[in-house]
Amino acid sequence: MRIAIAGAGSVGRSIARELLDNGHEVLLIDRTQSAIKVDSVPRAEWLLADACEIASLDEAGLDRCDVAVAATGDDKVNLVVSLLAKTEYGVPRTVARVNNPKNEWMFDETWGVDVAVSTPRLMTALVEEAVSVGDLVRIFTFQQSKTDMLELTLPADSPIVGTRVGDVAWPAETALVAIIREGTPIVPSQDDPLESGDELLFVASADSGPALSDLLTPH
Predict the structure, then answer these.
(1) What is the pLDDT of residues 101-143, one digit of tens each?
(2) What angle do CA 1, 52, 26 make, to 5 degrees?
(3) How would DSSP label each residue in 104-131?
(4) Residue 139 and residue 17: Cα distance in Å, rounded?
(5) Which phi-psi region, left, alpha or beta, contains residue 121 (left: φ > 0; alpha: ψ -120 to 50)?
(6) CATH topology for 132-216?
(7) What is the rounded distance in angstroms from the CA atom of residue 107 to the CA atom of residue 117?
(8) Among the ranges given (26-35, 133-142, 161-170, 181-190), the one the predictor scored with the smallest mean pLDDT
């Protein structure tokens, strides 16, 4: 894939390195001369330009990109870049960094954002996931589809412990996508039994959380 990243700070450069290692083409865009550190990510393309300007995005060839990542430290810039990428250039997928959690409500399809990544929220979710057993934790929200990625570590007294996956009456609009057992990820099949201590990962609609929690936790 060809991926454009607006914002060549530490976050943008780190994303670029990972994507390049995974075999993708990456273009880093930044309007600040001091941010153009070509030697730090030599395999990437670099462009000194303002990603909020149409002329700059034309020069970047954004219409040829599969993904646009808005990774600057300014939420206003990230929203504008996402909106332009989606509406003016038809980029199939946009990912935007949320710097201030108070602004998270704006990062949705109205502003052209498919996936919003809020570091404070993600860290909170990971802390909760690390210490919580029996509590449903929202790890991530997919803005375009309005679905959540949820995690729950199954307590020993859960009513579904010992039940086969296929025998559980999962709530509507809920999909069990993975079981992590003793550090090993398992793609669930209908015949897999659910065990105490299993980490269950779900993709579910925003309204499915309460019903899922009622199903999995002790009554």
Answers:
(1) 889 889 988 999 998 887 655 555 545 444 455 677 777 777 6
(2) 20
(3) GGG-SGGGT-SEEEEHHHHHHHHHHHHH
(4) 24
(5) alpha
(6) Alpha-Beta Plaits (3.30.70)
(7) 9
(8) 133-142
CA distance 171 to 148: 14
Q: Determine the topology of domain 2-117 in CATH.
A: Rossmann fold (3.40.50)
Domain residues of the chain, as ranges? 2-117, 132-216
pLDDT digits (tens, 9 = 90+) for 50-106: 999 999 999 999 999 999 999 999 999 999 999 999 999 999 999 999 998 889 889
Tokens of 50: 């303002």
DSSP structure class, residue 89 = T
E-assigned strand segments in 49-146: 67-70, 93-98, 115-118, 137-142
